[in-house]
Amino acid sequence: MKEFNLFLIIFIFLKNSKSEPNCVQNQNHCQKCNPLTHLCTVCKEDNYFPDLNGGCEPKCTIGKNYCNLCNEDESLCESCEFGFFPDKIGGCTYVTNCETSYKGKCLTCEKDFILVQETGFCKSVHSEDLKNCKTINNANGACSECNEGYFLNEGDFKCTTTEFCYESTFGICNSCISGYYLDKKNDKCVESQIENCKQTLDGINCDICNVNFYLSENKKCSDANNCDTVEDGKCIKCIDNYNLSQNGYCTPEKNCKTADKDTGECTECISKFYLDTINKKCKSNEEDEEFYYCTKADISCTQCDTGYFLGEDKKCTNTENCAESQNGKCLECKKNLYYTENGKCSSIEYCKIIEDNSASACDECIDGYYLDIAKSLCLKAENETFFNCKRAQYFGNFCLYCKTNYYNNRSDGLCYDNTDENDDFYRCEITDIHASFCNNCEKGYYLGAADFKCSKTEFCKYSQGGKCTECIDDYCLVAKNHTCVNGYLEETLNKMYIACNVTNEEGTRCAKCYDGYELNEDGYCKDVSHCEEKEGDVCKKCKKEWIDMDVHNYCYNSIFGCIRSYQRGCLKCDDPNDLYFCTECEPGYELTIYGSCKEIIN
Questions:
Q1: Is residue 166 helix, strand or coil?
Q2: Which of 146, 183, 475, 557 has the lowest tally of Cβ within 10 angstroms?
Q3: Residue 304, C-beta contacts closer than 8 angstroms, at least 6 positions apart
């Protein structure tokens, strides 16, 4: 029977072949010929297989059918080219669980697997989507008939105990066919009483309407007003001279964002346009100074864009409590309010900067004044405690935050210059309570992990004058731009940074390694402290007590010594540019053709 199946497979391929076979009995290793097809049906030797020319060929041939290594009697392939797997007749295929193949393409699958014609792959008959299936469609690998007591879903071709089900997961129905809704309490598909509704979850409100109907606000299905094409209850194309708004309704207005479902009148325009509420038209808000940043207007603007406010002059400005504005910027504040340096309106006299639009707030006072938080006033700095002070402490005479280019000394409450690159408090914002080190850096700077100095570099350990001189553990200093990079992170994956203290000025190789590592000729850092056995300069075995397989994995090689591998079970990885590709696995693991270590399960 097995020989007949193989013969049938070859015969199918023969139908598309241009050359005619010529089988001669007792020649070309053939024992028996078929007089109709002129093909050999039985070969003399067990390790030979009928070919398409009428003779027999070795089941396995190196360099043929993607095979790299045959077994001793040339009956089976032991090792295939990258990406291919040995089949059961001596060749190789890119399809797993394949029994017979031809030129890499699977012809028949192993037991309990079917060949899906559309994909060419072998699919298990025990797959979850084939559960309770009686008949499988070989064309697409989907179920075509269910066992007794089960129903075939219309949408995903799975079997469930729920009749009229459209799609399901693990035998539980998720949605019903058109005209039915899912009663989740009883796990049943119940016929819907909502007219023109395709799908409803509760039987009361429609979720998807039938073709040419759209879903209205009351969750019912209505005629598609001025709509040419409706899909899943939503209009996707309007009739001529109408435009589709973003909320799915048809309107005669071109630049409309949302429209009324019944009348088609525009209710909101797209960005950079405002709605003329008198004639329901969308007009540009950049062509007329009166309507800059306006979104709705009648004779004058009545509503502004997000982040803008309607001033007393009926124009939009980015400043609340504004009286006069131009092109979105405030020129004059309302009565009894003060205009700040950054164009905001404050109720506090001498206020210089407001970060938000609250008229009662002030973030920084003008030069010579400081903000008293308790009183919400800008007070004149009449003694050295408040010289260059930005904010004063609640109910006291202690400066809390200093102005730009000054840091707050928490021991005496005074503000000192922080622009001297040689000073320990360069770009510091606040010191500790004894003023022995910086406690917080100003915006854009990071506090050193060991020296508590400020630098432009994140993950810095030591710095000088704002430039990082040494990074924290696992980070390497790129000397070219004084940045700290972690070589193990996916977004910065670079073996040059691994165990490296600092790179060369060009950033092309490591210049100095961590303690316990030494620099090799390739510019990488090799671990010399955790090696147990060496052969010359090459580590052959890492210290056993150093390997913690539950946390990370290590492998040895001639480039790095004992290093972190990127996969479990890896013992050796030779390529310095690809630590994902393993060349030798630990006991209990086997090496795959992809360079990964697969655990051996007995």
A1: strand
A2: 183
A3: 293, 294, 295, 310, 316
Does this model's pTM top 0.70?
no
The C-alpha atoms of residue 42 and residue 109 are separated, in whole angstroms, by 22
Which regions of 338-494 does DSSP assign to beta strands (E)?
338-339, 345-346, 351-353, 364-365, 369-372, 377-380, 389-392, 399-402, 406-409, 414-417, 428-431, 438-441, 446-447, 454-455, 460-464, 467-471, 476-478, 483-485
- Rounded distance between C-alpha atoms, residue 114 and residue 300, angstroms: 73
Q: Which amino acid is at 92?
A: C
Q: What is the pLDDT of residue 451?
A: 93
Q: How far apart are CA 191 and CA 136, in angstroms?
A: 29
Res. 262: pLDDT tops 60: yes
Determine what percent of the chain falls in helix, strand and coil, rounding each to the nearest 5: 5, 40, 55
Spatial CA neighbour of 61 closest among 51, 46, 50, 76:
76
Distance CA 307, CA 283 (A): 20
- The burial of 497, by beta-carbon neighbours within 10 Å (0-12 exposed, 13-18 middle, 19 or more buried), is given as buried
DSSP code, position 12? H
Strands 197-200 and 180-183, sheet pairing: parallel
Cα-based distances in Å from 155 to 63, 143, 178, 187:
45, 12, 11, 17
Phi first, then psi: give them for residue 194, nearest 5 degrees.
-85, 125
Pairwise CA distance, residues 57 & 45, whole Å? 10
CA distance 398 to 413: 5
pLDDT category at 15 given cuts 50, 70, 90 is very low
327: which 2 tokens? 């092109």
**Phi and psi angles of residue 63, each rounded to the nearest 5 degrees, phi first:** 90, -5
What residues have CB less than 8 Å from 529, skipping those under 6 apart? Answer: 515, 516, 517
List CB contacts of 377: < 8 A, sequence separation 6 or more. Answer: 348, 349, 371
Q: Cβ atoms within 10 A of the Cβ of 136, count?
A: 19
Give residues with Cβ within 8 angstroms of 467, minimum separation 6: 455, 456, 457, 482
**Model confidence pLDDT, tens digit, residues 399-450:** 888 988 999 998 888 899 999 999 999 999 999 989 999 999 999 999 999 9
| Lookup: tokens for 82 | 């990258």
The CA distance from 558 to 572, in Å, is: 9
pLDDT in tens, 27-52: 888 888 888 778 887 888 776 777 77
